[in-house]
User: Which sequence fits this backbone?
């Protein structure tokens, strides 16, 4: 049986796992944005708090992924819960750092003008600072997504969803005739998702970056 | 010296009053602004000028509370600025800065519409206002309305910056070296254009610059800042150039003061000396009589409307028809002594005929007259701009 024959026999499983993988990554990313952007907004003008927050997020990224997923079983049990939380923790640094960098790189004269014209603080943030920082933040999201796509495969180890299950099954049945096919399917699914997400981000970037910005 | 409005004979209503204002940045030994009291009269341009780091920008930003003072009070139109919510105060004060600070992600029209929208103007009125302002700053609305700032030249961005500052029709404008990033030639054009706009809008303007030439051009009044935001002299450009209050001011004005004063003195503010004149259609005896009665080499021929018609050589005063040389160098009332000197040098002549708006003879300026004015041997009858306004 060739790889293609094998794929024809289980492609629905692969499709389901791919979809679940994408959803898992998006959940982690979404939570990271919900936490990271407000934290960035709250700390980017400060000195020590910003350094501390970025340092902490950086620390999270250094925890070996197997260990992190495992450690989360105790408080969160098995399945989707610990998987999403672990992915959120990994995505935090790229999201947070790019949001801070984007906000801090703004032309001070632009922000000062906004204040000097009588915009309130929330208005400056929502209509000037965040739209101007958006391209940098979006780059952070793109990087975080690529990072999470790979790490999300570990979720299978804590009974989480996604393509990791194919890879894990393949590894578990090593030695049987088609074991490698399963693992290859899992990896190809991740590569496919990486390409699709990248295209999506490129499109999003083009659609949402204000015309006055960019090259 | 600093707490009255100088140079104006009638007391003018102060639009901005700085009252013993001080600003000390945290962790700095020296105060950036110290005990500053200054009245800025309504409808005037007051130029803040001084060396780098002397507190001009700080003082300006205290007015719209971008910076909060350490002590002292600021009154805007009689009201303490701290009595208003800060964003309402700022919507009443136009703000234009050197780097323009335009929103790069918004079109020119949206940039200019910022304050009108914050003020809740109806859409139709905002659109009209944007087009009106674009026209005012010399940009065709149809061409520029939908452009983004990066699609404009530096000078055009600066114009949009000024238009945006005027957006909400504020009483007061704060301008921090608004033309500082523009090359000298275009800067002069922008300055002239802005003065033209100011003649119609009559805002009260604080204009920060470190260039004494620009201060003299733009300011109805000039405040010369020394270190620590201390105002060394607050007076009209003419008086600052003629009578610097102390050595610091004199040094800051520099050596070109005499020439600068020339460009501040308009011919209509001068008693232009008389010159022997004779009607062009007078008979030869009359011409000869006039010519003999004076010791100049030439008399000035005037036509029936008293317009200069030619120079009549004294030696040939009675030839018929009168032989004469054409008058090349005449200057109207809005020209300055600088223009007169410039004309004398470039046309290689020692006399310039001053005429009124209709081109009628007023008198003749000589190189010597200009020299006497430079040296202060003769005083101008008055100094032009404040009276004119
Ligand atoms: N945010 C700040 N924190 C601390 N010190 C400041 C700050 N802003 C300005 N200063 C100091 O206050 C003094 C006055 O600064 P200011 O910007 O008002 O000068 P300026 O007259 O506008 O100078 P320039 O012509 O160079 O623009 C300077 O000595 C400067 O170093
Ligand atoms: Mg300054």
Assistant:
């Amino acid at each position: 049986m060739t790889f293609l024959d094998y794929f024809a026999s289980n492609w629905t499983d692969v499709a389901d796992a791919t979809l679940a993988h994408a959803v898992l990554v998006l959940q982690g990313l979404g939570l990271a944005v919900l936490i990271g952007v407000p934290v960035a907004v709250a700390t980017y003008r400060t000195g020590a708090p910003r350094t501390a927050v970025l340092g902490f997020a950086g620390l999270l990224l250094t925890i070996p992924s197997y260990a992190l997923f495992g450690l989360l079983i105790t408080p969160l049990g098995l399945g989707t819960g610990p998987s999403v939380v672990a992915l959120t923790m990994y995505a935090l640094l790229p999201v947070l750092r790019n949001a801070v960098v984007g906000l801090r790189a703004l032309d001070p004269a632009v922000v000062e003008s906004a204040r000097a014209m009588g915009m309130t603080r929330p208005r400056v943030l929502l209509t000037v600072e965040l739209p101007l920082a958006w391209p940098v933040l979006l780059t952070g999201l793109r990087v975080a997504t690529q990072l999470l796509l790979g790490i999300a495969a570990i979720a299978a180890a804590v009974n989480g969803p996604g393509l990791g299950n194919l890879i894990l099954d393949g590894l578990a049945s090593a030695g049987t005739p088609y074991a490698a096919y399963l693992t290859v399917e899992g990896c190809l699914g991740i590569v496919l998702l990486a390409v699709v997400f990248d295209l999506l981000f490129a499109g999003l970037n083009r659609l949402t970056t204000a015309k006055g910005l960019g090259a | 010296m600093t707490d009255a409005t100088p140079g104006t004979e009638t007391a003018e209503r102060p639009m901005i009053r700085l009252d013993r204002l001080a600003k000390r940045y945290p962790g700095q030994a020296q105060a950036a602004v110290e005990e500053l009291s200054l009245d800025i009269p309504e409808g005037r341009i007051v130029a803040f000028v001084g060396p780098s780091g002397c507190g001009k920008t700080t003082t300006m930003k205290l007015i719209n509370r971008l910076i909060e003072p350490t002590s002292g009070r600021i009154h805007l139109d009689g009201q303490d600025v701290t009595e208003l919510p800060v964003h309402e105060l700022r919507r009443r004060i136009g703000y234009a800065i050197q780097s323009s600070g335009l929103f790069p992600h918004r079109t020119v029209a949206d940039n200019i519409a910022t304050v009108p929208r914050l003020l809740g103007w109806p859409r139709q009125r905002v659109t009209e206002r944007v087009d009106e302002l674009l026209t005012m700053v010399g940009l065709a609305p149809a061409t520029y309305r939908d452009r983004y700032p990066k699609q404009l030249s530096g000078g055009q961005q600066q114009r949009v910056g000024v238009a945006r500052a005027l957006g909400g029709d504020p009483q007061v404008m704060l301008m921090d070296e608004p033309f500082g990033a523009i090359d000298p030639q275009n800067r002069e054009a922008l300055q002239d254009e802005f003065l033209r706009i100011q003649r119609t809008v009559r805002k009260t303007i604080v204009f920060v610059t470190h260039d004494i030439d620009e201060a003299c051009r733009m300011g109805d009044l000039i405040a010369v800042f020394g270190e620590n935001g201390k105002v060394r002299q607050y007076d009209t450009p003419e008086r600052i150039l003629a009578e610097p209050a102390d050595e610091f001011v004199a040094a800051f004005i520099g050596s070109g003061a005499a020439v600068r004063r020339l460009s501040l003195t308009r011919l209509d503010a001068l008693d232009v000396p008389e010159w022997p004149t004779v009607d062009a259609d007078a008979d030869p005896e009359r011409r000869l009589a006039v010519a003999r009665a004076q010791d100049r080499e030439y008399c000035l021929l005037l036509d029936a409307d008293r317009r200069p018609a030619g120079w009549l050589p004294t030696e040939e005063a009675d030839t018929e028809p009168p032989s004469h040389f054409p008058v090349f160098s005449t200057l109207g009332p809005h020209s300055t002594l600088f223009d007169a000197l410039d004309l004398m040098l470039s046309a290689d002549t020692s006399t310039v005929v001053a005429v009124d708006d209709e081109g009628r003879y007023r008198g003749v300026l000589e190189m010597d007259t200009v020299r006497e004015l430079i040296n202060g041997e003769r005083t101008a009858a008055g100094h032009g701009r404040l009276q004119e306004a």
Summary: Chain A has one domain: 3-208. The pocket of adenosine-5'-triphosphate (ligand 1) is lined by residues B 25, 28, 32, 50, 52-58, 210 (CB under 6 Å). Residues 3-208 of chain A form a domain with the MetI-like fold fold (CATH 1.10.3720.10).
